[in-house]
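Narrative of accomplishments. A recurring question from our advisory board has been how the design workflow behaves on a single, concrete structure rather than in aggregate. To address it, we present the structure tokens for one chain from the evaluation set, followed by the sequence designed for it. No filtering or post-editing was applied between the two.
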């Protein structure tokens, strides 16, 4: 999921929060991306969003946007609390809607 984070100086940056799991016996994992100063992304030939960050580019599948497992929801609630406790505002960006309006 794409996030817009605004700090106390009203500076905005954009991050990706993602979870995934491998085989059935592997536990679910999560990551918060390095971020980007711009909300800048494209779609690839399969319709996935390519979302560049400082250190890498994330490939996000539109059909999975906003989907949460119980594990992901718990991690997200904790992360959101930590971000907001640093005097930052967090906004979830729906890339499906954003792309259609550009």
């Amino acid at each position: 999921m794409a996030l817009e984070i605004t700090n106390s100086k009203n500076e905005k940056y954009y991050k990706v929060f993602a979870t995934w799991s491998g085989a059935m016996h592997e536990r679910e994992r999560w990551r918060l991306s390095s971020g980007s100063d711009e909300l800048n992304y494209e779609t690839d030939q399969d319709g996935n969003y390519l979302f560049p960050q400082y250190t890498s580019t994330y490939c996000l599948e539109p059909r999975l946007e906003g989907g949460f497992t119980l594990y992901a929801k718990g991690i997200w609630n904790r992360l959101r609390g930590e971000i907001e406790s640093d005097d930052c505002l967090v906004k979830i960006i729906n890339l499906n809607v954003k792309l259609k309006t550009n």
